[in-house]
Amino acid sequence: MEQDLLQGKVAIITGGSSGMGKDMAFYFARLGASVMICGRSMERLRPVVEEITSHGGKAKAYECDVRDPETVQAMVHETVQTWGGIDILVNNAAGNFVCRAEDLTVNGWNAVENIVLNGTWYCSQAVGKQMIAAGNGGAILNIVASYAWTGGPGVVHSASAKAGVIAMSRTLASEWGKYGIRINCLAPGPIEGTGGIEKLMANEQMKEVVIDNVALKRLGTKEEISSVAAFLVSRYSSFITGDVITVDGGSWLDKGFLHQWERTGAM
User: Fold this and answer.
1) Is the pLDDT of residue 261 over 50?
2) What is the fold of 10-192+221-251?
């Protein structure tokens, strides 16, 4: 990928203090973007900014809870004041935990919906209005998950929220295309070095299950996610909007009966 692919672009990345968000911030900065990373803890954000700038990148941090639309608006204002505009938004902030549907509390449901669905909307609308006013177009990328369309046990709250994000993305892509604003989704699979996967991989039995469920028989890397994210917000994808790109090594594919047949040695 060209070293200056995002040169002169300004990007906001939510949930940028760790995991895939942090890696995307580094990757975008290496490609020339000025990056505003946001999260709920300045203590966790500050070292990321320091590391990016120590390598010659441009980055700032903003302590922001995406569930609060006023704080989101203040972050957008700060970004524009700092760098003159916004070209890219990555809605990466998320909240999730595994829980049986019958045991899920109202507070648990609302916690995930407020971060994933409401937070994505607050950020998308605030940045979208700025992009429309500026008249230069832009790209919004929403991080989702394949269980938003396959379903899966233990994630009814997160699956519902991320399915809503996909519907939101496609609706906004249709409505805002006339302004040159593209909205797409990226659905990562099991990625090494991310919190949830690290916990699972510590258990040898679960590690075998996770790897076996991936068609390519390995975990993905954060760089593989970041490189696709960079593609989706760059000129290389200038005719792609309203789409969902899955980067999961084929783990979402329904192997069903034939997969079980293969495992028994009958195939």
Assistant:
1) no
2) Rossmann fold (3.40.50)
